[in-house]
Structure formats: C-alpha cells, structure tokens
C-alpha cells in the first residue's frame, strides 16, 4: 500500500485551428473521403502552423494554461515536467525545458522528454504515478504534444491519411486523504521484434541525413498498417484484461474506456472483445485523427470538460505505438 494516491488535478488540450479534410488529402494522394471514413473513421485532422508558434512546446503551453486553470494551481507549483513527443522541438535541449521557459516556470523544476511514440503519455502518466505514490513528488505535469505533420509523408496514402497535430496536458498530484481518486492498475510493454512495422528512420545516428537522402522518405513515417492493426488490437485487449484481473474487476465496472485514437475499427475491435458498449468509449478520431501520444489526454480532457467523465468514475486508458510500445492505466478519477 502506497503512502499516497495519485489524483488528476486538472486537464487541458489544444489543437491548431487549421482543419484539413479528407477531400483535401484526396487532392494529394489517390484516396477518397469514403475510403478513409470506412477504413479509419477519420473525417478531418488539425495541422499545426509552426509560424504561429504551434510546435510541440508552443501547443503544450496553450494546453497547459487550461490545465492550470482546471487544477487551480500556478505554473510554479509544478515540480516535474514529463513531456512525450515523437517530433521534439529539437534534439536538445529537450522539449520539456522549452515548455518550462514558455510557461515562465522559475522554480527550476525537473524536465524530461519521453520517447515511446503514441504510448508516450501513458508511459509518462505511469512514471508520474510512481513518483507521487512514493512521496518523492507532489505535482507533476504530463504532456503529450505532437506535430505529426512534421514527419508525415504527403505522397504515401498508407500513412498520410492517419495523422493529425495537437496536445493534451494532465496535471497529477496527491489525492487528499479520504478521497477515492487513485491509480488501480497499470501496465507498460514493448515488443522490439515488431519495431520495423512503424518507424521514422532518418535523422539520428543510425541513418544520418546526408546530401543524398535529404528530403526522401527516410525523414518520414513508414508503416505496415496491417501488422500494426493486428498488434494494436491484441496488446490493448491483453493489457485491459491484465489490469482488470489484477484489480479483481470486470469491464462492466469501467465507466469510460479511453483508447488511443488511431482507427475507429481498432477501438471497436477492442471494445467488442469485452462486449463493451461503444458509447462508453471516448472517441474523437473522426475530428482529430491520430495525434500520436496526445490522443488519450485530449480525449480525456474533452470528456471531462463536457461532463461525461465525473469524479469517482472508473477510467480505462490504453495505448499502443511505434516500438511497438503499449500500455494502459486503470484509475479512479
Ligand atoms: O499509432 C499507431 C499508428 N498506426 C496505426 O494505428 C495503423 C493501424 N492500421 C490501420 O489503421 C489500417 O491498416 C490502415 C487504415 C492503415 C489501412 O487499412 P486496411 O484495411 O488495413 O487496408 P490495407 O492496407 O489492407 O489496404 C487495402 C487496399 C489496398 O489495395 P489492394 O492491395 O487491395 O488493391 C491498398 O493499396 O486499400 C488500398 N489503400 C488505399 N486506398 C485508398 C491503402 N490506403 C489507401 C487509401 N485510399 N488511403
């Protein structure tokens, strides 16, 4: 039994104003609105404008301001920033430090980037929970901020239809004594043998950008969609099962399922395995597409703000992504 329990103190999200419809994507590659909707559930996505400051740290600043307001805390109350992104502002300094700067945090709080692709925010949430439960930290900000348009290949119809930009921020703190909030179970995983199914190869030490390969698809995401799809359904269902079993609970006791928003068919397949009604799953993939590690915190914030998610309810969060990484959290909000 831990000394403390973790409470979600406040949440916020930001998506760039520019909407890109499926019809617009159809002008770039051989696809159609109908195909994209039938195979993915996506209708439109948001595209960040870096000139307007909407790089990962900039989007995170806007989402964080909403989360501070919701949590009723000041930026300088944050003791640690865990920042998940697959497309950082730059290699270093890390993007968490850029956010510290933009938020005007002057307390010297710790800043760490997490690279676990679409599962990154779940990894961050889990680390934050451990640090809060141990008593080491009282207030931690967990960010998922993604500019997928920075690595999307607008010539590849297998991938470019899927992704969008945006950010979700969650502020975690100690639950006051006597409150029911807390993490019930969690799981983190990765299967590196399947890593080749979803990659952005270029720009690092293994495949440096050279005069020969600059501007080619080594700087873009490559994916075997079918393999990722199969693995996503299998691992998310297995993680949910494991968490429920550890907690001696059933899916009927879960109020809201908040899965990674990659494809409506993946969400439906996981929900079907548990006979879980789809109207108890939080889904926004039709409006924002796959914003990588930002999908779960954005979806959770939307459902908190519109009153679907209420204090005391049980939430099941699950994600998967490049790595192939995966993870889940079962919690009392
Ligand atoms: O955060 C993790 C990120 N990644 C994912 O979550 C990806 C998971 N996978 C998926 O979402 C799906 O596999 C896709 C949406 C990517 C693809 O759907 P699918 O039902 O697996 O289609 P497919 O790859 O089997 O392709 C079926 C057909 C192919 O044509 P043929 O070979 O049957 O003639 C493709 O060439 O559809 C074709 N196709 C398209 N047609 C129109 C593939 N992409 C498109 C497209 N528009 N955008």
Structure description:
By secondary structure, this protein is an alpha/beta fold. The protein has 2 domains: 6-174, Peroxisomal Thiolase, Chain A, domain 1 (3-Layer(aba) Sandwich), CATH 3.40.47; 182-332, Peroxisomal Thiolase, Chain A, domain 1 (3-Layer(aba) Sandwich), CATH 3.40.47. 29% of the residues lie in helices and 23% in strands. It has 9 helices and 13 strands. The chain has helices spanning 22-26, 33-40, 56-71, 95-102, 120-133, 225-246, 264-273, 285-288, 295-305; strands at 6-14, 19-21, 44-46, 80-84, 110-114, 139-146, 166-174, 182-190, 198-199, 222-223, 256-259, 314-321, 325-332. The strands form 4 sheets. Strands 1-7-6-4-5 form a 5-stranded mixed β-sheet, sandwiched between helices. The chain has a 4-stranded mixed β-sheet with strand order 8-13-12-11, sandwiched between helices. β4 (80-84), α4 (95-102) and β5 (110-114) form a beta-alpha-beta unit. α6 packs parallel to α7 (264-273). The radius of gyration is 19 Å and the shape is globular. The model has no long low-confidence stretch (mean pLDDT 97). Bound molecules: oxa(dethia)-CoA (UT7).
């Amino acid at each position: 039994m831990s000394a403390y329990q973790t409470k979600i103190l406040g949440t916020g999200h930001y998506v760039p104003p520019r909407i890109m419809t499926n019809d617009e994507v159809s002008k770039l590659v051989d696809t159609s609105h109908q195909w994209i909707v039938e195979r993915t559930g996506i209708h439109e996505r948001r595209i960040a404008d870096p000139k307007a400051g909407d790089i990962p740290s900039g989007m995170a600043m806007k989402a964080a301001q909403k989360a501070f307001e919701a949590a009723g805390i000041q930026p300088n109350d944050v003791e640690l920033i865990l920042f998940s992104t697959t497309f950082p502002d730059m290699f270093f300094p890390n993007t968490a430090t850029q956010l510290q700067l933009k938020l005007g945090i002057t307390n010297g709080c710790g800043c760490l980037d997490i690279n676990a692709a679409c599962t990154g925010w779940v990894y961050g949430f889990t680390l934050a929970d451990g640090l809060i439960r141990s008593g080491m930290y009282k207030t931690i900000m967990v960010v998922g901020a993604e500019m997928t348009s920075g690595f999307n290949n607008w010539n590849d119809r297998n991938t470019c239809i899927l992704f969008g930009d945006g950010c979700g921020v969650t502020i975690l703190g100690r639950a006051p004594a006597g409150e029911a909030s807390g993490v019930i179970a969690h799981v983190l995983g990765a299967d590196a043998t399947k890593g080749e199914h979803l990659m952005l190869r270029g720009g690092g030490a293994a495949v440096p950008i050279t005069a020969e390969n600059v501007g080619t698809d080594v700087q873009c995401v490559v994916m075997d969609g079918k393999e990722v799809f199969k693995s996503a359904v299998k691992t998310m269902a297995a993680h949910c099962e494991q968490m429920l079993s550890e907690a001696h609970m059933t899916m009927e006791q879960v109020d809201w399922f908040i899965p990674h928003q990659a494809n409506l068919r993946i969400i439906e397949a996981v929900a079907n395995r548990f006979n879980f009604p789809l109207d108890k799953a939080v889904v926004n993939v039709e409006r924002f597409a796959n914003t990588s590690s930002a999908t779960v915190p954005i979806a959770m914030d939307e459902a908190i703000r519109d009153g679907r998610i209420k204090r005391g309810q049980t939430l099941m969060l699950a994600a998967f992504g490049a790595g192939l990484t995966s993870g889940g959290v079962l919690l009392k909000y």
